[in-house]
Write a structure and sequence with these properties.
The chain is an alpha/beta fold. Among the domains are: 245 residues, 3-Layer(aba) Sandwich (Rossmann fold); 115 residues, Serine Threonine Protein Phosphatase 5, Tetratricopeptide repeat (Alpha Horseshoe), CATH 1.25.40. Helix content is 55%, strand content 9%. The protein contains 26 helices and ten strands. The strands form two sheets. Strands 4, 5, 6, 7, 8, 9 and 10 form a seven-stranded mixed beta sheet that branches. The chain has a three-stranded antiparallel beta sheet with strand order 1-3-2. Strand 8 and strand 9 form a beta hairpin. Helix 1 packs across helix 2, helix 12 packs antiparallel against helix 13 and helix 22 runs antiparallel to helix 23. The chain is elongated.
């Protein structure tokens, strides 16, 4: 990703995005001798980076950072200093930063997303060149670059990116794009205006994270998306154990500029965050990194890392929230963990997180999802709405609320909430969520169009292919449904859930022999491991066998299978709605 620099007062034509590779180059750029520049680096926070390898003493600097530092001295943001100044700038900054760089209105839970802290070494530099008239109502934090020289440190830069998104998402009247949608730009060289247009945002944040031993530096800048105009920048150094306060400083700098632009007021100053041991912080971020891989091995690693963080510090609430999210994902259709195994763990972890920190929006959304699947509808709605109140940009909470509204039969409200989630996270809440919602709303043609569009963009999306099979089946386009479901089966390693719907489509198409062949495969699998009851329920509904459908509905009800939350709206259940037994299941699920 390109780095944008503040214009050089001297007018150097090559001052944008340049890297200077030695003390001599840095000194020449600043118009001073090497001795003076070394003194500035030591005493006044001149932003010079170091490489750690066999060639000791290698340094480099970015011209935009040097320009930022120099502009601060000119504008008085830093105390005036001469070549013989004996007062280190870091001492001056440490005296003011505790009061000046903490993000307002956020509570301890959001302050600990990036974890760890003891006594801090502070060096912070910020500058702002934008006028208050530049309105920022939508923002994306692009993946921070890992400047540590070690790809194994990606979890640190990715974790800092996610934490900044989470923290900034708490600002009301600001739309913040979610993590999933920005991570696809990791390592890209696409021009910033093009990214801004694609994400439909007013401003972008880009920057870097560099770890060197026990020290960490983060450099960020806020850029106007349409004009590429530099609005604000900051560079912050800390000891690794103090990374929580580092995050505080960065997010306060960004939030300060944005909230002044939005409201004309300055954000408040909360108390310092709690401290978290470095090993807890490391395990937590590695857990987040593994969680976002969205694979079974990744989720298993995530459980291990989050549990390690909890074992080291049982009071660290974000680790419990991460554990709840991981168990929730393990209970999804393609991973096939029984609800009785995964859901109690989601509930326990989410409740523990909220016991420690009641304002963790992520934990509330996970709790709401589990409560909904356990048919505690009122409590689930309360938790979804509280999660959104705490973090208006929590796309998962908006998406979860959309599903809650759908299950109640409030389809138009559900679509509005789903569209809001899509605005915030267009990558995660893409066509398959919207297409699925349209299918459950019996709007099959709209669902088919939405899902075809999604598959045009990503032909290998198994969920989109699966929901397309549902929608085509609802529209009685059975041959096309079978083709889509065969594709979904191939993409999902022949997921049992997909095979159940494939049996349904074969049955509706009158291809009974093929339907029974796939049904037999499901029974063989059941002898070896868990197969969700929904697979057999969908299969027998397609075969027109109501008695067997009710047998499997009872098993689905006993384990509170995910499919049971859709009793009120699922088109596949339409043939059963006039049967008194179906009404009893609605009552059991608190949906009558």
């Amino acid at each position: 990703m390109s780095v944008q620099a503040i214009s050089d007062p001297k007018g150097h034509p090559d001052s944008r995005s340049r890297r200077l590779e030695a003390w001599k180059e840095i000194a020449s750029y600043l118009g001073r001798d090497v001795t003076t520049v070394r003194r500035w680096e030591k005493r006044e926070g001149l932003p010079v980076h170091r490489l750690h390898h066999s060639k000791l003493g290698s340094v480099y600097a970015y011209t935009w950072e040097l320009d930022t530092w120099r502009n601060e001295r000119v504008s008085g943001a830093l105390p005036p200093a001469s070549d013989s100044d004996s007062v280190p700038a870091t001492t001056w900054l440490a005296g003011r930063s505790i009061k000046a760089i903490v993000l307002g209105g956020l509570t301890i839970g959001l302050l600990v997303i990036l974890a760890a802290g003891f006594a801090w070494f502070v060096r912070a530099r910020t500058t702002s060149t934008a006028s208050r008239s530049a309105r920022i109502r939508a923002l994306a934090v692009l993946p921070l670059e890992n400047f540590s020289g070690n790809p194994e440190q990606d979890y640190l830069s990715d974790g800092m990116t996610e934490a900044l998104i989470s923290r900034l998402s708490a600002i009301h009247d600001l739309r913040v794009i979610s993590r999933t949608s920005v991570m696809r730009f990791k390592g890209t060289r696409k021009p910033l205006p093009a990214i801004g247009k694609e994400l439909n945002v007013d401003a972008l944040i880009e920057g870097s994270v560099m770890r060197s031993g026990d020290k960490i530096r983060i450099s960020v800048q806020l850029i106007r998306a349409d004009t590429d105009e530099h609005l604000w920048s900051g560079t912050y150094d800390r000891e690794l154990q103090d990374v929580l306060k580092l995050q505080n400083e960065v997010t306060y700098g960004i939030a300060h500029h944005i909230e002044v632009a939005l409201t004309g007021s300055r954000p408040g100053l909360p108390s310092d965050p709690r401290t978290v041991a470095p090993e807890v912080y490391e395990s937590y971020l590695k857990g987040r990194f593994a969680l976002h891989k969205a694979t079974l091995p990744g989720l298993q690693d995530a459980v291990r890392y989050f549990q390690a963080a909890i074992d080291a510090d049982s009071t660290f609430a974000p680790a419990y929230a991460g554990l709840a999210a991981t168990y929730s994902n393990l209970g999804l259709v393609f991973f096939g963990k029984p609800p009785g195994e995964s859901r109690p763990k989601v509930l326990a972890a989410a409740r523990k997180a909220l016991e420690l920190d009641p304002e963790l929006s992520e934990a509330r959304a996970e709790l709401a999802d589990a409560l909904q699947k356990d048919w505690h509808w009122a409590e689930a709605e309360t938790e979804y709405r509280r999660a959104i109140e705490l973090s208006p940009n929590n796309a998962a909470a908006h998406g979860g609320l959309a599903q809650w509204l759908l299950c109640q039969g409030r389809t138009e409200e559900a679509l509005a909430s789903a569209r809001r989630a899509q605005e915030l996270d267009p990558q995660e809440f893409n066509g398959h969520q919207i297409g699925g919602l349209l299918f459950y709303s019996h709007r099959f043609d709209e669902a088919i169009r939405e899902l075809h569009t999604t598959l045009t963009i990503d032909p290998n999306d198994p969920m989109a292919a699966w929901y397309l099979g549902f929608a085509l089946n609802g529209a009685k386009q059975y041959d096309e449904a079978i083709t889509a479901l065969q594709r979904a089966a191939s993409l999902s390693d022949r997921s049992s859930a997909v095979l159940g719907v494939l049996v349904h489509a074969y049955g509706e198409a009158g291809r009974r022999a093929e339907a029974l062949q796939v049904l037999d495969e499901l029974y063989r699998r059941r002898k070896k491991g868990y197969v969700p009851p929904a697979a057999f329920l969908n299969a027998y509904l397609g075969l027109g066998d109501k008695e067997q459908a009710f047998v499997w509905m009872e098993r689905a009800a006993e384990e509170r299978s995910n499919i049971m939350q859709f009793l009120k709206v699922h088109p596949f259940f339409d043939p059963l709605r006039n049967d008194p037994r179906f009404g009893e299941y609605l009552r059991r699920a608190n949906l009558s």
